[in-house]
Each structure stands twice: as C-alpha cells, then as structure tokens.
Amino acid sequence: MDEPPQAPEIPPEVEEWLWAERIAEAQQWGPLSDIRWSAEECLDAGDAATARWLAIEDRRLELLTEWTHAAEQIARWEAVQMRLLAQALDDALVDARGDADMAVRSAAAELATAVGLSDRTVQRRMSDASTMRDSFPATLEGLTHGRFSRAHAQTVMEEGTRLDEAGRAAYEQIVLDLAPQLTTGRLRVAARAIAERLQPTALVERHAQARDERRVVVRDGDDGMAELWALLPAVLAHGIHDRVTRLAHVIRAGAARESPSDGDLASDPDDRTIDQLRADILCDLALTGHATGAESERGGPTGSNAVRAVVQITVPVLTLIGAHGDGAGAGTGDIGGATLNGRCPVTPADARRLAGGATMWDRVLTDPISGDVSAVDRRLPTEAQRRHLRARDEHCRFPGCRISVGRSDIDHTIDHQYGGATAVDNLAHLCRRHHSLKHHSAWTVTQKTPGVLVWTSPLGRTYTDRPPPALRFMPGGAGLRGAALFQGP
C-alpha cells in the first residue's frame, strides 16, 4: 500500500483512528479500513491491546451496518403492509352491497383478529394506508425503498393531509428531502411549517373548521392513574396551562412563607413539584371551581371529594369494610381489588370513599370467598342480571375490544325473536360498533359455555373471548389458587 501524505500532529484527546479517518477524507484517500492496521496485523506485531480495541470497533461497525439494514428491511415490509391494507379497503368497498361502512368494519375485524389487534386500530390503518397510497405516493415509494421509517412517513402524511393535490405534490418534494436526516419530532416541526406556507386557505378559516374537532378523552393507565386528554384551541390550552402554573407558584410561595420558624410546631412540608401542583389545581378547578391546591390524605387533591359521576366500580366487600386496610394487593400476592369500569384499579381508600359518598355509583359487591355474583333470571334484563353481566364482562366482548360496559349494549347471543332466552348464559355486552357488526355482517357468535363467546369471521376463522376472571377478587392465597384454576387449558 502507498504511504499516505504527511499528517499533522494528532491531538492527544482525539482517538488516533478517528483523526486518521478525517485526514484521509480531507485528502481524498480511501476509508479508514484502507489506511489503518487490522486487528490481525496488530496481533502479528505483538500489540494485543490495540488488537482487542480494533476488534471491538469492528464489531460495533458490523452491528451498526446490520442495524441500519434491519431498519431498511422493516420499512420495506411496512410499505408492503400499507399496500395490503389499502387493497383490503378497496376490496371491502367493492363488496359493500349498499353498506360501505359495515363492509369496511367487517374487513377490519377479519384482519385484526387474525393478528391480535383492535379492529378500530386496523380500520384506522386501512384508511391511513389508502390515503398514503393515493395522496402521498412519493412518500410510500420512499418507504418502499427503506429511505425512512413508517413513523417518518406517517408524520409526512399527517402534516400534509390538509393540503390540496397541487400543494401535496410540492410539499412532498420538499419534505422528503429532509425526512432521512431528521428525527420524527424535528420532521414534524419542519413539515408543519412547510405545509403552512403551502396552504391555499387562510389560518382563520382553517381554525374555525378545526375548532369543531375539540374534545376531551380519558385514557386509563396503570396503578390507578389515567390520562385526561383534551383537544382545544391553542390559545385556551396555553391559557389553562399558564393559569395552573401561576397558581402553583402562588401556592408554593405561600407554603414557603408559612413554614414554621425554629421553635414552632413543625407541620408536614408541602414538597410537591410544580407538575404535581398543576395536576392538583386542575382537578380542583374542574371539580370544585376553586384552586385550593390542598391535599387530601397526603397526595390526593381535594377535588376528588367532588366527584359525582355515573360509572361502575366493582369492590370486594372486604375492601369496603376495611378488612384489608389500604395495602391489600400491594405486593402481597393478591390478584386484585377494586376496579373502575372493570379496567382501571383504584385504591381501597378511594373505593370506600366513592362507594360510600356518591349516590350515582353502581356498586357491585363480589363475594370474598368465591368471587361470584349471584345468578339472576324476561326480554329486558332485570337490574340484578345487569349487575351480574357488568361484573362478569367489564367491557365489550368482541375479541380485543376494551370499550367499557357503561358504553355498551346488552345483546342476546341468540336473538330473542328467535327464541333466545333472557338469561346470563345468552347475554353479553357489545359496544355499538360490534353490536352492529354482529347483526349486519357475516360475523356470527355463539355462547355454548356461559360467558365464553366464540366468534366466527366471514372467512371461517374462529376466535374465543373469555370473560375477565371474577376469581381475581379473592383475598390472600385463595386468590392465587383461583387464578391458577382459571388459567388452565
């Protein structure tokens, strides 16, 4: 190999191989691998330490190459999936027979249950895939060649959807040059700015239309928590955030002024963060109209005492009487305690307060030994039957659906008009979407075992949906034993 030109002195804080690579690139030599020794050459020269270091670097370079190759392959397969979903939407619309929406729902359910996804998610992805294929062809083509990820493609589509056809073409041409170089977060900012410049209508007109989409949504989380999400006009959203922030600082400053001096009786300090204060104040403002920022039982906002809602809380009777205290189920091996709408766990203290103080709660007490709700027995279910079904089902009984029973209908598995009994072994909760799907598409369902629904898709595949285990409400070791029995084959 020819000797490289004389290199400048290497700074001690810079890796020798990195410095050599920069010099080689600047002087149009080949890559580093052409001018540095290999690990084998170092070993031959007796430099074992350098050989080990070079071997590690070689492995890191190989891993990086394989990583980027895998990312490109994933992007290509994501593009394949998009084209399949778009085609599935086309086929459903061709086969609609007068009811396009139901045909699309049925097709989405067929695809979703085959891979264990929510049919709502699949239907949304079908719509996105069709939009991508028809309105953003260059973006889909870039994904097909692995130039960027599906998240990048989704960002490009979401920010450019409001543009007209001519605007989208110009938008894609600009944004797709940036996509491979930016993270999705930075790409979204850039794409939004570019789309704004290309908008054919004024912001005032578009904002008036966007205001119609404002809404508030609750998303259940873990450990008794939930997200309260709102889509609001930007001015109002920032105004709300600014107000709760200012109030949080006022409360924190007041707490600092009221700190006991030496010799005074010490009280528990208010050590909440600004984020925690914002959350507590927001609850106070929404539920009481007053921003006290005070705490209830060290951590709960006082606004929780103002809750008056129509929701279902399922509470083991021993939780209501306080037999387990406030620590039941917390690392003790218990299967569970009180749940809100059958999905979100609540603390025993909250369960007792809500069940005892709010007249609009539907209280369902589960037996602490057997976990059963009493069996009940006309065309419209009795209130006792409704309680039984709410406790058994907890949510819509279509595979994968988590819509709560409070937002679902009670359906006769075998229609009442065809002789189906109004009995708990012929009743189940279905949300409006899947209730309609059962009656107006080729999907069918049977309930040969009480509470166990077997769904058959239009293509003949079967999916079994079992009710959530009531035995999880058992206390102590009995709960673990019951769960083991339930989870059998």
Automatic annotation (TrEMBL):
Pfam families noted in UniProt: DUF222 (PF02720)
Gene3D superfamilies tied to this protein: 1.10.30.50
InterPro entries hit by this protein: DUF222, HNH_nuc
HNH nuclease domain sequence ranges: 384-436
Protein name: HNH nuclease domain-containing protein
Origin species: Microbacterium lemovicicum
